[in-house]
Amino acid sequence: MSAVQIAGCSAAGKSAIATALAHQGLTTIDSDADPHLARFVDPQGTIVAQPPPAPDLPWLAEHSWAWDPNRLDELIQTAAPATLYVCGGADNQHEMANRFTQVFLLEIDEPTMLARLDARRDYHEWGHVGDTREYLRRKLPILQDTLRASGAIVIDARQPLDQVVAAVLRYTPPMAPFSF
């Protein structure tokens, strides 16, 4: 079993990378798209059934975006023998770092993040509602510093998508062909 994490702040390109890798026939998951994997939890770890539509900074400070470790294990096992590319992150991702053979940081600067947030209108309004934009501004340097310090492979995600995908694939060990 093998898994690779492609992490970064909102608007770094994680979902676009997931789509591009899937088009190349690789096994991928956009972690935010699996409600059994990624969800908001309260300080006691209880899943928040209905987050507020426009969370403010106090609510965001008291809640976290968390992965369910059992669900992550299930996804990795189901993908085997293929490598699973997990595109996304969570506040508790450091607790699951041992599940990944490699972690990539899609690094962007604040102006790029804000411009991409302004341009996107995808399946959610994160970065557009409540205090989520300010939350992301504050989180960006902390997240990137933490991932760099943990040894993540840094990729400049301001590059065109095809170059970012090529960089990920350049650093990912090839998967041996499966045989019986």
Explain this structure.
With 180 residues, the chain is of the alpha/beta class. The protein has one domain (2-171): Rossmann fold, CATH 3.40.50.300. Helices cover 37% and strands 18% of the residues. The strands form 2 sheets. Strands 2-5-1-6-7 form a 5-stranded parallel sheet, sandwiched between helices. Helix 1 (14-23) crosses helix 6. It is globular and about 40 Å long.
Write the layout of secondary structure elements.
Blueprint: E1 2-7, H1 14-23, E2 27-30, E3 38-41, H2 57-62, E4 64-67, H3 69-79, E5 83-87, E6 102-107, H4 110-119, H5 132-149, E7 153-156, H6 161-171
Parallel strand pairs: 1-5, 1-6, 2-5, 6-7
Antiparallel strand pairs: 3-4
Protein name: Shikimate kinase
InterPro entries: P-loop_NTPase (IPR027417)
Total of helices: 6
* CATH topology assignment: Rossmann fold
Q: N-to-C terminal Cα separation, in Å?
A: 16 Å
Give the count of structural domains. Answer: 1
Q: How much strand?
A: 15-25%
Described by strand count, sense and barrel closure, the largest sheet is: 5 strands, parallel
Q: List how many beta strands DSSP finds.
A: 7
**Low-confidence parts:** 176-180
Protein name: Shikimate kinase
Organism: Catenulispora acidiphila (strain DSM 44928 / JCM 14897 / NBRC 102108 / NRRL B-24433 / ID139908)
InterPro entries: P-loop_NTPase
